[in-house]
Amino acid sequence: MSVLLIPNPTKDAGLAVTRQAVGVLAGLGVPVLMPQAFAAEPGLAGVHFLPEADAYRTADQVVTVGGDGTLLRAGRACMESGKPVLGVNLGRTGFLATCEVGELSAKLQRLAAGAFTIVSRGLLHAEAPAHGWQADAINDIVVFGQTRLHPMDYKVFCDGAFVGSYRSDGMILATPTGSTAYSFSAGGPILDAAADVMVLTPVCAHNVHVAPLVFAANRRLEIIADAENRDGSFACADSSDQCDLLPGESLLVTGQGARLQLIAFDDAEQFHAIENKLMRR
Q1: Is the pTM of this model over 0.85?
Q2: Is 68 known to be catalytic?
Q3: Could you say which of 12, 68, 136, 238 is catalytic?
Q4: Would you state the pLDDT for residue 274?
Q5: Domain spans of the chain, in order of start
């Protein structure tokens, strides 16, 4: 087996944790790969450097060193190459990157021994027909007014049936994985990561009776920014891919067939994270 390390130099200052991972894996006789961009970094003797696309194709497993954002950015390449990923958490929370630095050696030993399981996480697929824009999201699709100086009006349809009108700062559609991220901060529920659903959560709704709604992942949701809105809106996937929407234009969202494969060492990792990283704050 071989392991591809994807570090985030902003989080991993001086690549100290990455070097620790290299040392553990090398000591276990596991070949370590890294993208060619890190070839000039000192202290990485024995690492095989390859162009990033080749590295993903060659590796058996991927380990990211940073936080949830680092894993999200690597996640698409992992899905395209069909490789499972383990995240080492150097961020503040770590719901996707579940390996803490203090666990690094023990979990890499279990990885090398094959003592792990694979859990799959569903994605969302968004389209803006007026612009030919498409994007996939591991965490969420968000629609916001471009200025955020005043609330926007949105209408939501599910499989063509009218769901409701919302006056809010924005709308979030989150996967179960993303339900502990922005959606949770906006008052959305925490979903079982194994559930095949998505949650619609308004942001700062101007109606105290508005509640988040959970839909089956195979539903087709349409969010329309009302033509009477004073400003345009923008949609983004996982805080990266973005598309501007004019008043009256719509965004279509449904569950995505592709799934992200995460390396897990405990069937209850999600619930441990909820207890230790949310409930005990």
Answers
A1: yes
A2: yes
A3: 68
A4: 67
A5: 3-116+265-279, 123-257
